[in-house]
Amino acid sequence: MVEDKLRKDIFKIDKKIIKSRLIVGTGKYKNLTETALAIKSSGADMVTVAVRRVNISDKKKPLLMDYVSPKKFIYLPNTAGCFNSKDALRTLRLAREIGGWEMVKLEILGDKKTLYPDMIETLKTTKVLVKEGFKVLVYCTDDPLHAKKLEDLGASAIMPLAAPIGSGLGIHNKLNISIIIKQSKVPVIIDAGIGTASDATIAMELGCDGVLINSAIALAKKPILMAEAFKYAVISGRKSFLSGRMRKNYFAEATSPKRGLIS
Questions:
Q1: In degrees rounded to 5, what are phi and psi of residue 55?
Q2: How far apart are CA 22 and CA 102, in angstroms?
Q3: Of the listed 86, 105, 127, 239, which one is catalytic?
Q4: For 88-98, b where at least 16 C-beta lie within 10 A, e where not — what string?
Q5: What is the pLDDT of residues 157-206, one digit of tens each?
Q6: Which CA distances in Å does 27 have to 127, 137, 150, 215?
Q7: CA 88 to chain centre
Q8: Residue 105: active-site member
Q9: pLDDT tens across 13-25, in order?
Q10: Would you list the DSSP string of the chain?
């Protein structure tokens, strides 16, 4: 039964089929060679890219595209570093003009200390981008009400944070994440705060459609090995979710039959 479920288990954002449920970022690595090796080790086929790092004008600087080819990987341009709607819209319109990218990640930060999303600006910007034909994956708080509003506005995926960006603290509000998953008809992808592979497994066991990882891989002592760990953690967590866990018991329950005991 599990094998049947896995064969039918397709991860799709809008109409785009994504092979791996692990999405990885391209920032914070020591160099572009390490970036490319870690992404390969992760098995991911979608990568997030800050538009300012997709250098196409200064030929003296190395090009991310030379190391991580947009022909082999799905590029997901994001608005990292934007603190208002105006900057986010300009960034993503530029991304579409440069590379024809319409599937994008919207991220509008509220302040520099917490890097929490500004949901007022995020909701407003999502509405504009959807109207302009973008397929928007939206970084948001773990508030179920805001998540529902984003879906109602036409977001292609909801991306609630697990904890503050780059904190590595893991999932702090499983209840809210679970509510968001249950109420959403679009994919729910954990974004921000994951610290290690076991956090990704937990996210998948909750029923998330995917996880986005950057810092936990890039800042590990051995990023390439950590990327591989996340690859298998996501696969394991998804299989566990599809299998259906045992019910919880508050008292012990013997695994051996009570009949036929030697007296």
A1: -70, 120
A2: 20
A3: 105
A4: bbebbeebbee
A5: 999 999 999 899 999 999 999 999 999 999 999 999 999 999 999 999 99
A6: 28, 18, 26, 8
A7: 19
A8: yes
A9: 998 999 999 999 9
A10: -HHHHHHH--EEETTEEES-SEEEE--S-SSHHHHHHHHHHHT-SEEEEEGGGS--S-TTSPPHHHHS-TTTSEEEEE-TTB-SHHHHHHHHHHHHHHH---EEEE-BBS-TTT--B-HHHHHHHHHHHHHTT-EEEEEE-S-HHHHHHHHHHT-SEEEE-SSSTT-----S-HHHHHHHHHH-SS-BEEES---SHHHHHHHHHHT-SEEEESHHHHTSSSHHHHHHHHHHHHHHHHHHHHH-PPPP-SS---SS-STT---
Q: Which residue type sits at 130?
A: V
d(CA 190, CA 212): 6
Contact between residue 77 and residue 49 where contact means Cβ atoms under 8 Å apart: yes
Structure token pair of residue 18: 């994504």
Grade residue 7 by pLDDT with cuts at 50, 70 and 90.
low
Backbone angles phi, psi at 258, to 5 degrees: -85, -20
- Tell me how many degrees the CA angle 103-106-109 measures, rounded to the nearest 5: 165
Query: Which contacts of 247-252 are long-range, i.e. CB under 8 A and separated by 24 or more positions?
Result: none
Q: Which pair of structure tokens corresponds to residue 183? A: 């109420």
Cβ-contact 135, 106 below 8 angstroms = no
| Average pLDDT over every residue of 77-98 | 92
> For residue 43, is pLDDT > 70?
yes
Residue 256 has pLDDT above 80, yes or no: no
Report the sign of the C-alpha dihedral through residues 95, 96, 99, 101, in that order. positive
